[in-house]
Amino acid sequence: MELELTDKSVLITGGSRGIGLACARAFAKEGCALHLVSSNAQALDTARRELEASGITAVRTTAADLADPHARAALIDAAGPLDVLVNNAGAIPGGTVDAVDEAVWRASWELKLFGYIDLAKRVLPAMMERGSGVIVNVIGIAGVMPRADYIYGATANAALNAFTQAAGVQATFHGVRIVGVNPGPCATERLERMTRARAQATLGDPARWKEMLVRLPFGRPSEPEEMADLVVFLSSARASYLSGVVIDADGGTRYR
Protein backbone atom coordinates (compact mmCIF):
# COMPACT_ATOMS: atom_id res chain seq x y z
CA MET A 1 0.00 0.00 0.00
CA GLU A 2 1.46 3.35 -1.04
CA LEU A 3 1.09 5.77 1.88
CA GLU A 4 2.41 8.83 0.01
CA LEU A 5 4.63 9.87 2.91
CA THR A 6 7.96 10.05 1.08
CA ASP A 7 9.90 13.23 1.98
CA LYS A 8 7.21 14.38 4.43
CA SER A 9 8.59 16.27 7.45
CA VAL A 10 7.56 14.62 10.72
CA LEU A 11 8.07 15.95 14.25
CA ILE A 12 7.71 13.34 17.01
CA THR A 13 7.72 14.35 20.66
CA GLY A 14 8.78 11.72 23.15
CA GLY A 15 10.65 10.25 20.21
CA SER A 16 13.60 8.64 21.95
CA ARG A 17 11.94 5.45 23.23
CA GLY A 18 8.74 3.42 23.42
CA ILE A 19 5.92 4.29 21.04
CA GLY A 20 7.68 7.47 19.92
CA LEU A 21 10.81 5.66 18.78
CA ALA A 22 8.71 2.94 17.15
CA CYS A 23 6.91 5.72 15.23
CA ALA A 24 10.26 7.13 14.15
CA ARG A 25 11.32 3.76 12.77
CA ALA A 26 8.02 3.33 10.93
CA PHE A 27 8.05 6.82 9.41
CA ALA A 28 11.69 6.32 8.42
CA LYS A 29 10.73 3.24 6.41
CA GLU A 30 8.32 5.45 4.47
CA GLY A 31 11.12 7.86 3.55
CA CYS A 32 10.16 10.70 5.89
CA ALA A 33 12.44 13.41 7.23
CA LEU A 34 12.41 13.03 11.00
CA HIS A 35 12.73 15.47 13.89
CA LEU A 36 12.73 13.73 17.28
CA VAL A 37 12.25 15.55 20.57
CA SER A 38 12.86 14.33 24.12
CA SER A 39 14.02 15.69 27.43
CA ASN A 40 16.69 12.96 27.53
CA ALA A 41 19.60 14.04 25.33
CA GLN A 42 21.46 10.74 25.74
CA ALA A 43 18.44 8.66 24.74
CA LEU A 44 17.89 10.95 21.75
CA ASP A 45 21.46 10.48 20.60
CA THR A 46 21.09 6.70 20.88
CA ALA A 47 17.88 6.81 18.84
CA ARG A 48 19.46 9.03 16.18
CA ARG A 49 22.49 6.75 15.83
CA GLU A 50 20.23 3.70 15.53
CA LEU A 51 18.16 5.31 12.78
CA GLU A 52 21.23 6.55 10.91
CA ALA A 53 22.80 3.09 11.14
CA SER A 54 19.74 1.71 9.36
CA GLY A 55 20.37 4.07 6.44
CA ILE A 56 18.23 7.04 7.47
CA THR A 57 20.13 10.29 7.08
CA ALA A 58 17.45 12.96 7.58
CA VAL A 59 17.20 12.82 11.38
CA ARG A 60 17.15 15.96 13.51
CA THR A 61 16.97 15.87 17.29
CA THR A 62 16.14 18.44 19.95
CA ALA A 63 16.58 17.91 23.66
CA ALA A 64 13.94 20.04 25.37
CA ASP A 65 11.64 20.06 28.36
CA LEU A 66 8.26 20.44 26.65
CA ALA A 67 6.60 21.18 29.98
CA ASP A 68 8.09 24.66 29.48
CA PRO A 69 5.93 26.83 27.17
CA HIS A 70 9.03 28.76 26.08
CA ALA A 71 10.70 25.51 25.01
CA ARG A 72 7.62 24.56 23.01
CA ALA A 73 7.62 27.93 21.23
CA ALA A 74 11.33 27.68 20.47
CA LEU A 75 10.92 24.15 19.14
CA ILE A 76 8.21 25.07 16.63
CA ASP A 77 10.07 28.21 15.57
CA ALA A 78 13.17 26.12 14.83
CA ALA A 79 11.39 23.11 13.34
CA GLY A 80 10.39 24.73 10.07
CA PRO A 81 7.42 23.62 7.95
CA LEU A 82 5.84 20.38 9.18
CA ASP A 83 3.68 17.88 7.37
CA VAL A 84 3.01 15.74 10.44
CA LEU A 85 3.14 16.43 14.18
CA VAL A 86 3.00 13.39 16.46
CA ASN A 87 2.24 14.47 20.04
CA ASN A 88 3.55 11.65 22.19
CA ALA A 89 5.55 13.15 25.07
CA GLY A 90 4.30 12.89 28.61
CA ALA A 91 3.61 10.45 31.41
CA ILE A 92 1.11 11.28 34.13
CA PRO A 93 1.72 9.49 37.46
CA GLY A 94 -0.74 6.99 38.80
CA GLY A 95 -2.55 7.39 42.08
CA THR A 96 -5.91 8.16 43.61
CA VAL A 97 -7.22 11.70 43.98
CA ASP A 98 -5.57 12.13 47.39
CA ALA A 99 -2.34 10.27 46.63
CA VAL A 100 -0.66 12.51 44.06
CA ASP A 101 0.92 15.79 45.09
CA GLU A 102 -0.72 18.76 43.38
CA ALA A 103 2.58 20.11 42.07
CA VAL A 104 3.33 16.72 40.51
CA TRP A 105 0.06 16.28 38.65
CA ARG A 106 0.03 19.92 37.53
CA ALA A 107 3.56 19.54 36.14
CA SER A 108 2.59 16.36 34.30
CA TRP A 109 -0.46 18.07 32.83
CA GLU A 110 1.74 20.95 31.66
CA LEU A 111 3.78 18.45 29.65
CA LYS A 112 1.04 16.23 28.26
CA LEU A 113 -2.34 17.98 28.36
CA PHE A 114 -1.26 21.58 27.82
CA GLY A 115 1.82 20.51 25.84
CA TYR A 116 -0.24 18.63 23.23
CA ILE A 117 -2.72 21.48 22.89
CA ASP A 118 -0.05 24.17 22.74
CA LEU A 119 2.04 22.40 20.09
CA ALA A 120 -1.07 21.77 18.01
CA LYS A 121 -2.02 25.46 18.24
CA ARG A 122 1.47 26.47 17.21
CA VAL A 123 1.66 24.29 14.08
CA LEU A 124 -1.94 24.76 12.94
CA PRO A 125 -1.66 28.27 11.44
CA ALA A 126 1.05 27.27 8.94
CA MET A 127 -0.70 24.00 8.12
CA MET A 128 -4.03 25.79 7.57
CA GLU A 129 -2.42 28.46 5.42
CA ARG A 130 -0.82 25.74 3.29
CA GLY A 131 -4.04 23.69 3.27
CA SER A 132 -2.46 20.43 4.38
CA GLY A 133 -1.01 18.71 7.42
CA VAL A 134 -1.79 16.08 10.03
CA ILE A 135 -1.62 16.12 13.83
CA VAL A 136 -1.72 12.76 15.61
CA ASN A 137 -2.24 12.78 19.37
CA VAL A 138 -1.11 9.60 21.12
CA ILE A 139 -3.30 9.79 24.20
CA GLY A 140 -4.24 6.67 26.20
CA ILE A 141 -7.22 4.40 26.82
CA ALA A 142 -7.73 5.72 30.36
CA GLY A 143 -9.51 8.70 28.82
CA VAL A 144 -12.44 6.44 27.99
CA MET A 145 -11.74 3.84 30.71
CA PRO A 146 -11.12 5.95 33.82
CA ARG A 147 -9.82 4.30 36.97
CA ALA A 148 -9.65 5.77 40.45
CA ASP A 149 -5.99 4.77 40.77
CA TYR A 150 -5.07 6.74 37.64
CA ILE A 151 -7.45 9.62 38.06
CA TYR A 152 -5.21 12.47 36.93
CA GLY A 153 -4.07 10.61 33.83
CA ALA A 154 -7.62 9.59 32.96
CA THR A 155 -8.87 13.16 33.35
CA ALA A 156 -6.13 14.64 31.17
CA ASN A 157 -6.61 11.96 28.53
CA ALA A 158 -10.36 12.60 28.45
CA ALA A 159 -9.65 16.28 27.83
CA LEU A 160 -7.27 15.42 24.99
CA ASN A 161 -9.90 13.15 23.45
CA ALA A 162 -12.35 16.06 23.47
CA PHE A 163 -9.76 18.47 22.06
CA THR A 164 -8.85 16.07 19.26
CA GLN A 165 -12.46 15.48 18.30
CA ALA A 166 -13.50 19.14 18.38
CA ALA A 167 -10.38 20.65 16.80
CA GLY A 168 -10.25 17.86 14.23
CA VAL A 169 -13.66 18.81 12.88
CA GLN A 170 -12.77 22.50 12.60
CA ALA A 171 -9.41 21.78 10.96
CA THR A 172 -10.94 19.98 7.99
CA PHE A 173 -12.29 23.27 6.67
CA HIS A 174 -8.67 24.31 6.18
CA GLY A 175 -7.38 21.04 4.71
CA VAL A 176 -5.82 19.81 7.96
CA ARG A 177 -6.58 16.61 9.86
CA ILE A 178 -6.32 16.02 13.62
CA VAL A 179 -6.70 12.46 14.86
CA GLY A 180 -5.87 10.49 17.98
CA VAL A 181 -4.85 7.05 19.18
CA ASN A 182 -5.72 5.65 22.59
CA PRO A 183 -3.24 2.84 23.25
CA GLY A 184 -4.18 0.31 25.86
CA PRO A 185 -1.42 -1.39 27.85
CA CYS A 186 1.69 -1.31 25.63
CA ALA A 187 4.96 -3.15 26.21
CA THR A 188 7.11 -0.19 27.22
CA GLU A 189 9.37 0.56 30.18
CA ARG A 190 6.60 2.73 31.61
CA LEU A 191 4.09 -0.15 31.54
CA GLU A 192 6.50 -2.33 33.50
CA ARG A 193 7.06 0.41 36.12
CA MET A 194 3.33 1.00 36.55
CA THR A 195 2.50 -2.70 36.65
CA ARG A 196 5.21 -3.38 39.20
CA ALA A 197 3.65 -0.73 41.43
CA ARG A 198 0.21 -2.28 40.98
CA ALA A 199 1.60 -5.75 41.73
CA GLN A 200 3.13 -4.41 44.93
CA ALA A 201 -0.19 -2.85 45.94
CA THR A 202 -2.38 -5.85 45.11
CA LEU A 203 -0.09 -8.89 45.40
CA GLY A 204 2.54 -7.58 47.78
CA ASP A 205 5.33 -8.45 45.35
CA PRO A 206 6.44 -6.23 42.44
CA ALA A 207 8.31 -9.15 40.87
CA ARG A 208 4.91 -10.71 40.06
CA TRP A 209 4.01 -7.83 37.72
CA LYS A 210 3.58 -10.06 34.64
CA GLU A 211 0.69 -11.81 36.40
CA MET A 212 -1.20 -8.53 36.17
CA LEU A 213 -1.17 -8.71 32.37
CA VAL A 214 -2.32 -12.25 31.62
CA ARG A 215 -6.00 -11.31 31.33
CA LEU A 216 -5.34 -8.75 28.61
CA PRO A 217 -6.77 -9.37 25.13
CA PHE A 218 -4.60 -11.87 23.24
CA GLY A 219 -2.91 -12.60 26.57
CA ARG A 220 -0.40 -9.77 26.18
CA PRO A 221 0.01 -6.00 25.97
CA SER A 222 0.36 -4.41 22.56
CA GLU A 223 3.79 -3.82 21.06
CA PRO A 224 5.00 -0.26 20.36
CA GLU A 225 5.33 -1.19 16.70
CA GLU A 226 1.61 -1.98 16.52
CA MET A 227 0.77 1.50 17.78
CA ALA A 228 3.34 3.04 15.44
CA ASP A 229 1.85 1.35 12.38
CA LEU A 230 -1.52 2.87 13.27
CA VAL A 231 -0.01 6.35 13.76
CA VAL A 232 1.74 6.18 10.39
CA PHE A 233 -1.41 5.02 8.62
CA LEU A 234 -3.45 7.81 10.18
CA SER A 235 -0.81 10.29 9.01
CA SER A 236 -0.97 9.05 5.44
CA ALA A 237 -3.06 9.79 2.38
CA ARG A 238 -4.82 6.45 2.90
CA ALA A 239 -6.57 7.99 5.93
CA SER A 240 -7.47 11.20 4.11
CA TYR A 241 -11.13 11.21 5.25
CA LEU A 242 -10.38 10.71 8.93
CA SER A 243 -10.34 13.73 11.22
CA GLY A 244 -11.77 14.45 14.64
CA VAL A 245 -11.63 10.76 15.53
CA VAL A 246 -9.75 8.93 18.28
CA ILE A 247 -9.13 5.23 17.75
CA ASP A 248 -9.20 3.04 20.85
CA ALA A 249 -6.30 0.70 20.13
CA ASP A 250 -6.67 -1.46 23.23
CA GLY A 251 -7.49 -4.87 21.78
CA GLY A 252 -10.97 -4.63 23.30
CA THR A 253 -9.72 -4.16 26.87
CA ARG A 254 -12.53 -1.75 27.70
CA TYR A 255 -15.14 -4.45 27.03
CA ARG A 256 -13.65 -7.02 29.40
UniProtKB/TrEMBL annotation:
<protein>
    <submittedName>
        <fullName>NAD(P)-dependent dehydrogenase (Short-subunit alcohol dehydrogenase family)</fullName>
    </submittedName>
</protein>
<comment type="similarity">
    <text>Belongs to the short-chain dehydrogenases/reductases (SDR) family.</text>
</comment>
<dbReference type="GO" id="GO:0016491">
    <property type="term" value="F:oxidoreductase activity"/>
</dbReference>
<keyword id="KW-0560">Oxidoreductase</keyword>
<dbReference type="Pfam" id="PF00106">
    <property type="entry name" value="adh_short"/>
</dbReference>
<dbReference type="InterPro" id="IPR036291">
    <property type="entry name" value="NAD(P)-bd_dom_sf"/>
</dbReference>
<dbReference type="InterPro" id="IPR051122">
    <property type="entry name" value="SDR_DHRS6-like"/>
</dbReference>
<keyword id="KW-0520">NAD</keyword>
<dbReference type="InterPro" id="IPR002347">
    <property type="entry name" value="SDR_fam"/>
</dbReference>
